[in-house]
Amino acid sequence: MKKLVILTGAGMSAESGISTFRDSGGLWEQHRVEDVATIEGYMRNPKLVLDFYNERRRQLPLVKPCRGHELVAALEQWFDVTVITQNVDDLHERAGSTKVIHLHGELMKATSTDEPNDPTQIVTLDEDHMDIHIGDKAADGSQLRPFIVWFGEAVPEIERAAEISSQADIYVVIGTSLNVYPAAGLVQFVPDHSPVYLIDPKDVPWSSGHRYRHIKKGASEGMEELTEMLKLIAED
Ligand code: APR
User: Fold this and answer.
1) Residues 123 and 96 occupy one common structural domain
2) pLDDT tens digits in sequence order for the chain, 236 residues long
3) Do 26 and 122 share a structural domain?
4) Between 114 and which of 94, 130, 142, 183 could a Cys-Cys bridge form, CB atoms 3.0 to 4.6 Å apart?
5) What is the model's pTM?
6) Distance 138 CA to ligand 1 centre (A)
7) Are 194 and 216 in a shared domain?
8) What is the domain-level CATH number for residue 4?
9) Is 92 annotated as catalytic?
10) 176 and 84, same structural domain?
11) What range does the domain containing 31 cover?
């Protein structure tokens, strides 16, 4: 099976009702990034940050995968698919995608403030335990924090994501403004001969030299169109 790699961003979940970051009305219009999405902000006011993610986490059981998520999962019938997502929601998994790499962490997981990337410190939250409060402790006794990669923190999965991108026979980018590095730089690892597709209703600043085909539609409609195109490629 051909290797199909799909890089997704907030636009992938927009049709599920989860707001993006940089569109009008996006999350970064309602909150200051430096207050809620940086390690400095967390150290300065941990309660504000915990509450910001508690609010986003509580939204998850109320939303469901959109048609776009379902079509991404359905491509596993014809391709060896890996989803590399910047999203921290679990909608790709809930739609049935079996290989999902979360570059920026996962809303339904929590970890240690002292050793956030120590696997022994990572715990999965559930519907009975959706909030993290001041005083909740990780296994190592430090304050429990969201398992989210904040601006300025390392992106532990980026090497694996780059390696997978370098082996892609086909690459698809859906719903990301390609503003945030290192995620935005992954396209440059795609082999020159591999076709690249972009699904986004808007134009996106494209820094890599790689040519791409822009399906200027939303995630669900765009994935309907792309699925028809990819099914033809899968067979040859
Ligand atoms: N379908 C597809 N794409 C859409 C849709 C839709 N229905 N609606 C909006 N988009 C596109 C926008 O045109 C934009 O290009 O989704 C993109 C959203 O861009 P951002 O809001 O910047 O989200 P993203 O690129 O995922 O942000 C990257 O920044 O704040 C950090 O960690 C956060 O992972 C996030 C990272």
Assistant:
1) no
2) 999 999 999 999 999 999 999 988 888 888 899 999 999 999 999 999 999 999 999 999 999 999 999 999 999 999 999 999 999 999 999 999 999 999 999 999 999 999 999 999 999 999 899 999 999 999 999 999 999 999 999 999 999 999 999 999 999 999 999 999 999 999 999 999 999 999 999 999 998 889 999 999 999 999 999 999 999 888 66
3) yes
4) 142
5) 0.97
6) 31
7) yes
8) 3.40.50.1220
9) no
10) yes
11) 19-62+109-148
CATH of the domain at 35: 3.30.1600.10
> 220: Cβ below 6 Å to ligand 1?
no
Residue 92 in contact with residue 73, Cβ under 8 Å? yes
104 ligand 1 Cβ < 6 A: yes
41 lines ligand 1 (CB under 6 A): no
Residue 177 Cα to ligand 1 middle (Å): 5
Q: How many domains does the chain have?
A: 2
